[in-house]
Every structure is written in C-alpha cells, then in structure tokens.
Specification:
This protein is an alpha+beta fold. 31% of the residues lie in helices and 28% in strands. The chain has twelve helices and 21 strands. Strands 5, 6, 12, 13, 14, 15, 16 and 17 form an eight-stranded mixed sheet that branches. Helix 1 packs parallel to helix 4. It is globular and about 75 Å long. The termini are far apart.
Length: 456
Amino acid sequence: MPPSLYYDVIIIGGGPAGCATALSIAQHDKPDIMRVLVIDDSDPDAFKIGESLPAPAKRALSLLDPTLPTRIAEDTANGLHSRCTGNASAWTTAHLEETYALMNPYGAGWHLDRALFDETLRETCAARGYLRKGKFVAVRRVDEPGVFFGWAVDTEMTPEASIETLHARWVVDATGRRASVARKLGAKQRRHHDLLAFYIVFNSTLDADAPTSDHHRKHHDNDNRTLIEAAPSGWWYSARLPHNKRLVTYTTAPSDPSARIARTTSGFLDMVASETQHISTALGMGEDGADVAVQPAYAPCTETRAFTRTTAAGSSVLEPCAAWEAASPCGSSMSGRGWCAVGDAALAFDPLSSQGMITALNSGLFLGGVLARALGPGTDDASAGTAATDDAVSKIRAAYEVVRKRYEEGRAYYYDIVRRFEGQSEVDDGGDSGAFWTMQRSGGTISLPVTVPDAL
C-alpha cells in the first residue's frame, strides 16, 4: 500500500477527546516517528452544547500543547469565551448554595463558545499535520499474509467527496455518544438512567448602545455563575455564554409527562417561569419568576421559536472499551491491530456531573501516552508488540473503570439527597412529581466515569 495511506493511529472524530488523544501522542512520541491522523467532519459554525469547562482543565490543556492556555486566555480577553465565576445551586432546598472561583486553586473556569474551542483544538492538530476533513464510512479488518495486518478505514474526504481507504495499526473511536466505529466492531453500549436535555439558546434583547437606561441597568445580565435548580420532575441549568447569549436546559426522563411540555418553546418558557426562581430572574423575568418584563432581557434564538432542541443526557458505558487482536504467527510481520474508544464514545455522563469536557481532555491525555508507549519504537516485533499492546488494553480498561466508579458514587449521592418534592402532586399533567427523583435513585446502578457534580 502507498506509505501516505498508512498510519500508526487513526482517530475518528475531531472533538475534544479525539484532538486531545492526538496531541498527547505528539507530546509522548519523542522520536517524532509515529504517523497519526484525525478524521473530522464537524461543522465549525454549528452551535454545540457542552460549554462548561472547569478550571482544573488548565493543567490538561498545558500538557497537550503549551500554546493552548495562551490561545484560550487571549480569546477570553477578547470576549470570545466567558469566565465562570462560580457555581450556584438550589438543590436540596430552594435557596442557593454557592462555591466561588476565588476559592479554587486553579481560578475561574469557562463558559465556552464551544464551536470556537473545538476549532482551536483542531487547528492545533492541523498545525502538526494530523487533521483531515472527511466523513467516516466504514472500518474493516485486513489480514494480508506477509504484507499487512491491521485496519482499513474508508473515508469520504472533503471537499473532494471521494472515498479513500486509509490503513492503521490502531483505530480510536472519538465519535461521541454514537460510538460509530466501536459499534461496527461489535461493541455494545450499556445505557442507564435514560435522560433527555431540552434546551434553548437565548439572545439578549437589550440595546448595547444604551447601557445607562433604567431598563438596561435593571435587567442587564452580569451573572457569570453556573446556575442549577432542582424541579419536581427534573432539573434546570443555565450559563451565560459569550456574544450576549444565555443557555437554559431542562433535564428529565423521556417518559416523564414534563418532557412533552418541554418539547415546545412555549411550554419550556412556561416551565421556566413556574419552576425556577434564580434562572428566570437571570432571563429578566419577574423577581418571582412569574411575570415577564415588558421588554424581556432575553428572547429565544430563531431556531427555537417553536420547538426546543433536544440531546441525550443519560449515562452509558461501552463494552468492551478497548481490544487487541494479535497477528497470526505465520502472517504479517506486524504484531497485531487494536482499537479503543475515548470520551463519550467510551463513557457518557449525566450532565449534572459537569465533567464531560474535562474528562474528554483528561482521557485523551491519558490515552495518547498509553498508545505512544505501546506503538512506539520496537513494537513492530510480534512478541514485543503484543506484550506492549496487551498491557495498553489492560491499562485503558482499568483507568476507565476507576472513573466509572467515581462517577457512579457521585451521581447516586447527589440524586439521593433531593427529597423536597416527595409527596407533591402535579396538577397540570396529573403526574407524581416525586416519580422522577425516585426513578433516579432506584433505576439500577450506572457504569460511567466522572466525579461529583462540580456545580453542587
């Protein structure tokens, strides 16, 4: 095969987890001999939920590439990302409990322009020659005796729209919750605590040129905290975003009656007004969350004037999350082929944990180091390579299991302590307002990775 079409590692997906894996390989590949490719089909202009980046991510960013912290700091100074000054949650009671960024040794985190942040990571990969735009089509096992034992990855390249077949020793699935590659290889996703998140991005309606008006002074949004409020049948989240926007999400079970109401923008807004106090205030609604101002401080973006957007928010774990197949003794000189998943493809979390982004970066940082050692110099030899890669698979599985257990413990604790809605009834839809919380406490153990909710 042409050398230009062979890679040590092909990573499918150019989000935070995929880019972090590639950049980590670069940092650990001191001889600079490994061929790495990230295949990405993201739309850099599309809005993407997942804007919360905790302050400890600064460490991972600096280890992935020394230019990243500087680049993100500059973008923040220019108003392209927003600082998160702390977390405020009305969880066990209706009163806010707060944690302040001032008390965090890492300082303030971010409410990101997520599309810009992801594009920054991709540009850093592209600067190393790691990135190509294309759409993943298929992955196949290749066993050509004496020639090649590995993977063939069919990709529709952009903008040519032509199919290219690339070859690799190791394939990484970084396609997010879809786990598109791993599922084609026979892996199964085990889902727990099925949840949906309904959300609206609001645009500020205040005139930036009239900051001294009474209305502007009263309703101007300067709240850079992460806000969380528990509700009878789910929970609410809000964050002020760059570009004078604010995100509001409502998370509940798909079977809960409130999910039907939250699908429409009018129903969603009615629920914000009736079920939240602090988030409705941040949106410029009345102090009691019931009366909308004559000129609301925010209005839903054009795309959600009729219906809200929806995304999966439950927990899932991929089984297996990594595997290695040794080459036959009389076959190729290659030691074998392997694959693994990273980020949401391997372990997807309830957004209450606020850990999706930082876990994607940290898992990519970890995985890149493991792969660089397993596929580096001296591992083409069949015996040495098999020993190294078997060890790599064991390390990946063990590390993911540690994160999964931490997440499971944290999630169970935070859902268990909400008891204030038990015994209430919901007049509007006839449902039991305590049913959601009971379901989250009793719905079987979950298997995932993260720690406890940073926002609580």
